[in-house]
Design a protein that fits this description.
The complex is a heterodimer of chains A (about 500) and B (about 325). With about 500 residues, chain A is an all-alpha fold. Helices cover about 70% and strands about 0% of the residues of chain A. Chain A folds into two domains: about 1-15 and about 450-490, no CATH class; about 20-450, no CATH class. Chain A has helices spanning about 20-30, 35-65, 80-90, 90-100, 110-135, 160-195, 195-205, 215-245, 260-285, 295-325, 330-340, 345-355, 365, 370-395, 410-435, 440-450, 450-460, 465-470, 480-485. Chain A is globular. In chain A, about 50% of the residues are buried. With about 325 residues, chain B is of the alpha+beta class. The chains are: A mainly alpha (about 500), B alpha+beta (about 325).
Amino acid sequence: MSHYESPVREPLITGDNITYTKITDDIVRTTEQKPPLSWFIGFGISAFFALVGTVAILYTVWQGIGVWGLNKTVDWAWDITNFVWWVGIGHAGTLISAVLLIFRQKFRTGINRAAEAMTIFAVICAAIFPGIHMGRMWVPFFIFPYPNTRGPLWVNWDSPLLWDVFAISTYLTVSLLFWYAGLMPDFATIRDRSKGKLRKFIYNALSFGWIGTAKQWQRFESLSLILAGLATPLVLSVHTIVSFDFATSVIPGWHTTIFPPYFVAGAIFSGFAMVQTLLLITRKVLRLENYITLAHIESMNKVIVLTGSIVGVAYITELFTAWYSGYLFEEYAFYNRAFGDYWWAYAIMMTCNVITPQLFWSKKIRRSIGISFALSLVVNVGMWFERFVIIVTSLHEDFLPSSWLYFLPTWVDVAIYVGTLGIFMTLFLLFTRAFPVIAIAEVKSIFSSSSALARKRQIEENGDDFESKYGEAEGMKYKDLKYNVNTSND
Amino acid sequence: MAKDKYIIGLFDHEDKLVHAVRAFKAKKIEVTNVLTPFPVHGLEHELGYEESRLHTAGFLFGMTGMTLALFMMTWVSISNYPLNVGGKPFFALPAFIPITFELTVLFAAVGMVMVYLKRNQLFPGHVPRIYDDRITDDRFAMIFKVDDNTTQQDYDAIAALLKASSVTDIKTKEFDDSSEMFTSIEREFVFQNSSVMAQPVAEEKAVVEEEVVEHKIVEETAVAEQTVVVEKSEDELKDQLFNEIGVVSEDSKDDLKKIKGIGKVYEGRLNEIGIFSFGQIAKLQGKGIEAIEVLTGFPGRIQREDWVGQAKTLNEGGTTGFSDKVDNGNVY
């Protein structure tokens, strides 16, 4: 039974000819057809960079991390910057599926699948960095507590770096489970459409034999809700713990209590920006404009402007606290950030994260696809520089002026970073070919209540009374609503 | 070699399905299962399902993870590998909180998903019974398991109620364990105890197909028909019916099952309306037939199977081939 929804709400599925079958067709189509040339070009480029990154990683393993640009004071630079950046990006998917599920935000249904996939790929990219920056990367299992013959020698439970191990691995596992639980019914949809025997066999195996009985769906909904309840504090905990990596140290510029909320807001900010970037491309290339609508894009931009503003407030609070502390080293750390050797990085960070996202206060800009795309890229550049600024500027001028040095990356640093971008895009492009990029069942479940067709029906039912009934109460004019229903994307 | 047979009704909208579930509940006909392409809210209440207890499992797994994490860290820090960090306490509870939290969530999530998969019979390689290819696309299915006691009449009753609930398609399907995966598992079947047992399969199929076609036409005019139903209340219809055929008390009850086409279920429903004797059926004419069809929700059968003709013969003390079989106990 479809729940009542006010007709003044913007529809989340547009198009006049949508039916349940059309939804299936539109979403599954991409897995059934030969990919277009643009896909092959994109895949070739991504795979090439992934290969470059792999070579650079192998070179690092062979030579040691001396091939990076690290120096006497900056002993942790692009590796940890990239790690934090990728983990941050990985926050949007689970946030969209978990927090928005709890808040019953229906715009979640159009974007959650791709966002969750992106989360998993981003966390995989992030996990590469601790894997290689610890020096002896052939014994990465030393970071896990297990009975061993070295004493036994246990890990240090009091270290945030160990908490990180638990946080990231739990986050990856839970995100994967959440994502896969939602995929099973959609794989079954692909299976039942398949003609070939092999294809049917593969998609049946992937669907775990889902058939969609009422009891299965009841358990599915129960599982989704509880996983969402568990994943919500988990999302918040992950970047909190990442921020502890810095905040529990005594380095001026890192040792601040504002870090956990500030990192979490930043993570959501960059994660939504990355989702925006990918979905704007996906909807265009895969022709999914009816399911990822301007309403979705606008909602995402609202989250971006909110979290961007939180980040901006955090930057300013940090500056104020440094000055107000009266502590020389803290004051210098922040003076050096803004006006020291790396002033340009700080300027990029401030511009990209605090100033340009404020453009989203304008409804016109929020609903402009071109500007949204450009700003989503800008945000991710800005968020990369935020981590770079926090990490490198706090380290490069330590307590002993004689050892002050300027950090510069080597080609290996750059190649590994670009390589993870390549790995990320390769995985995402493969995902778009083999998986349903939109949660088919979930989109169908809002079709009766939140589609443009449902709105049209509501208007017809209310007829001429519509304006008097809804116009005053909800501040919406009939003509605005008409615009809502008829608005076509692009 | 187990064989299972099902009657499958397919709907094209979730509201129609929920409506049908209610109708079947009201008539106390058991629905074996309901399948939908997406979660339909409120359906589990209509079906009388209890709330899922997954959350209990999640809680227990979470508590296990929490206990394990705390126990492990405490044991290592205090006893197995005490590490003096600047004279701070070995048992540092605040520092244990992050890992305790993560393991609580990890255990709860993994455990709950395992229970979920187990309870839903989901595992890679599981080959399910696919009742219809479109159930994961745009059809909402109601299925009824058929066993040796099911008769053509039971089928008719189910089909009638499905049609009254504006079903889109009705079909029958048989599953066979020895069938190759995904292929040749679907075949039409004849009811073992059915009155039409002697008829060839092809004819049975034809009947079902005919009904489907017929129904599609009915569907198009469904709105108009419904309004007719609303205009004439049940009482009015009954008045009209009994003016035509006369009232008979239950004492002079005939075995209506002797009429080919009337089974146990259908007989019960005719009795409910107040039709007990062959004489009444023999007197049926156009309007009375219409009234019965509306009251029982099944159009077309009375004329096609010539119930009136059969009833006339039986009322005059004659026999039909079918009634002989009933008398000899070959049918029921």
